[in-house]
Amino acid sequence: MTVLDTDAPRFTGRPIAAEKRLGGAERARRMRDPGFGRVFTEHLASVRWSAGRGWHDARLEPAEALTLSPAAIGLHYGQIVFEGFKAYALPGERAGLFRPDLVARRLQRSARRMAMPEPPAALFTEAVTELVRADRDWVPPERGKSLYLRPILLATEAHLGLRPSAEYLFLVLAFVTDTFFPGGVRPLTVGICEDYVRAAPGGTGEAKYPGNYAGTLLAAEQAHARGCDQVVWLDARERRWVEEMGGMNVFFAHGPAGAPRLSTPPLTGTILPGVTRDSLLTLAPSLGLPVTEAPMSVADWRGGAADGSITEAFACGTGAGVAPIGTVRSATAQWRMGDGEPGALTLRLRETLLDIQHGLAPDPWGWVHPVSPR
Ligand code: COI
């Protein structure tokens, strides 16, 4: 066992030998049309934690199935948190991690909320860097495609008393992605959920906790059956205020045409603090688009779309990027955003962010962390 000095963690292990790696033609075939969440890379970074020993056994290994006790606390009581962020091809050989520092901090906050040990930022960065180096060939060169990195922290102790685990496994896996929504950049139809709530004050809504996502699946299935791409979640108290979409945040563009501005619901403790959301709060003003964090009621959204004062709406998240909303459905009404097509401001923000992520535009905020090949 290696006990890690977390200021300088060292990953050991077994990167796959060059002759045993997937051939370039097969890799290219898999990467051609990756969609979201199904084309996984060849390696996995893993680190263990146990009470008394702390973080230890940092490894880079072939991505294989896990061995886990059927009594693992995480399986039964859901003591698990995860993250999601991306590496983009930069000009030349390097790949760029987008805001890994902010992601590491959010993982630490989520872990705290679920009574788990917080992976140190240096350990997080090292795990991700090792994985991206080993799987550099899986970072797609095309604009808009990327390598999605999925860190997960999981309670592994075999014990079914209801208490925090004394053992954890921290993993980082990766998959290739282009678009989150089938069909690429197109106007989404979103459905307001009036039957269920995603998060309540004091709950786990602002943590990246799997239960927040599992709890949305039934509503998502029902929304799909009514022709919707995503569910819009409302606040639990009044069922009146727009919060987020379960897998992404939401923004609105307000007129008049000559002086547009944006708004997004404030982080009240029940909304996931999205990294794309945070980036747009900084990026938009630099493009002359002021942004406020302001509540939006369903009635005001509908009224604003009808009288033209709300000109565009879009979803944003790591998986989705910036995704235009074309149509909104509630139980009793349906309305269109503008002419129902992707709005100009939405597309401008989407493209500007992609330029930064791919190293094609200045990055004054230091968001992109390049990883060089070894
Ligand atoms: C992401 O946008 O990356 C997320 O983690 C949301 C998940 C539902 C795919």
Keywords:
374 residues; alpha+beta; D-amino Acid Aminotransferase, Chain A, domain 1; D-amino Acid Aminotransferase, Chain A, domain 2; 2 domains; ten-stranded mixed β-sheet; nine-stranded mixed β-sheet; 9 helices; binds 2-OXO-4-methylpentanoic acid
Task: Describe what this molecule looks like in 3D.
By secondary structure, this protein is α+β, with helices and mostly antiparallel strands. It has two domains: 18-177, Aminotransferase class 4, branched-chain amino acid transferase, N-terminal domain (D-amino Acid Aminotransferase, Chain A, domain 1), CATH 3.30.470; 188-357, D-amino Acid Aminotransferase, subunit A, domain 2 (D-amino Acid Aminotransferase, Chain A, domain 2). The chain has nine helices and 19 strands. It has helices at 24-32, 73-77, 100-113, 121-134, 210-214, 217-225, 275-286, 298-307, 344-357, and strands at residues 12-13, 39-40, 43-50, 54-62, 80-82, 85-89, 95-98, 146-155, 167-177, 188-192, 230-234, 242-244, 249-254, 261-264, 291-293, 310-317, 321-329, 334-336, 368-371. The strands form two sheets. Strands 1, 2, 3, 4, 5, 6, 7, 8, 9 and 19 form a ten-stranded mixed sheet that branches. Strands 10, 11, 12, 13, 14, 15, 16, 17 and 18 form a nine-stranded mixed sheet that branches. A hairpin with a 5-residue loop joins strand 6 (85-89) and strand 7 (95-98). The longest helix has 14 residues, at 100-113. The chain is globular and about 60 Å long. 2-OXO-4-methylpentanoic acid (COI) binds at residues 84, 213, 247-248, 317-320.
